[in-house]
Specification:
It is a single chain. By secondary structure, the protein is mostly helical. Helix content is 81%, strand content 0%. The longest helix has 29 residues. It is globular, with a radius of gyration of 18 Å. The protein starts with a helix and ends with a helix. The mean pLDDT is 80.
Length: 294
């Protein structure tokens, strides 16, 4: 795209990404009562692969070399396979949506530590302060939803897997995926993740689907808005910014999810949650302001 348009788009992309990414938790909540998690994700990946294959056939982008294909497979297994599989399995095993968002919201702390060692990025004291504010804010937002949960051991293993996968996937994409055209990269990544989900569904699930309006809407939303729109925005931001700065955006996911849950499901926001949201915004502001100066 022209540079002026790209610059303008880069300014609004983080806010758009936060809203789209947060909506994924809502989509999972709508769809999972009607289908098992790996079956749900298999249907989602099949639809996305079909759409991306059509895009590749029509636009005919340059196909990446063998090494780039391998990097895309690894990114897909981590950023889609491990992350999405972990989140959906955790929610299906009764881990509260808010607590799920809290745990994967720990990614910036983990990623900032690894980015310093793996990518050689310098994390400034101001960024560390912002990351600290963010984690406190995330905790305050969801703390009232964490008590009395019915989650089992599988849910906890799944959500920790999701946290580690999205962290490692972001690092891998930042280090190895910046020069790969997004069209074949998406096709390869979603195909790799879809193969894993399909194998898991055949091995561990009944694969029964209750085709309701809620499920169809959730599936369409997750395919078009999340798997295409939000992930494209994430890769766009990864290519333009540092890993620490990008990961700070994930702190805004729980507040955005809370607002959506209030609007759609009449879940009320208390005073403590509002304070937490303010801390998240302040934390992201510190991380991004510091990143612009480095």
């Amino acid at each position: 795209m022209p540079r002026t348009i790209e610059t303008l788009f880069a300014r609004v992309a983080p806010a758009v990404f936060v809203v789209l990414w947060a909506s994924g938790f809502i989509g999972a909540r709508l769809g999972l009562p009607h289908v098992e998690p790996l079956t749900f994700l298999t249907l989602r990946m099949a639809a996305v692969v079909g759409l991306m294959a059509l895009v590749v056939v029509i636009t005919r982008p340059a196909w990446p070399g063998r090494a780039a294909v391998g990097h895309s497979v690894v990114s897909g297994l981590l950023m889609h396979g491990g992350y999405l599989g972990g989140v959906f399995i955790a929610i299906d095993h009764k881990l509260a949506v808010g607590l799920t968002a809290l745990i994967v919201g720990l990614q910036p702390i983990l990623l900032s530590t690894l980015a310093n060692r793996v990518l050689g990025e310098t994390v400034t004291p101001r960024q560390w302060a912002g990351l600290g504010l963010g984690i406190v804010g995330v905790y305050l937002i969801v703390q009232d939803k964490t008590a009395g949960g019915e989650a089992d051991l599988i849910a906890w293993i799944a959500i920790v897997t999701a946290l580690l996968s999205i962290t490692a996937g972001t690092l891998w994409q930042k280090r190895h995926g910046g020069t790969i055209d997004w069209r074949p990269a998406f096709l390869i990544q979603y195909a790799a993740a879809g193969a894993v989900f399909a194998a898991g569904a055949f091995l561990f699930e009944s694969r029964r689907v209750e085709w309701t309006g809620e499920l169809v809407f959730a599936l369409a939303w997750l395919v078009l808005v999340l798997s295409l729109g939000a992930i494209w925005l994430l890769y766009f931001l990864i290519r333009r910014g540092s890993a620490s700065r990008i990961s700070s955006l994930f702190y805004l996911t729980p507040p955005a999810t809370a607002v959506m849950a209030w609007a759609l499901f009449d879940e009320r926001l208390g005073a403590v949650a509002l304070v937490g949201m303010a801390l998240c915004v302040a934390g992201v502001g510190l991380v991004n302001a510091s990143a612009r100066k480095t």
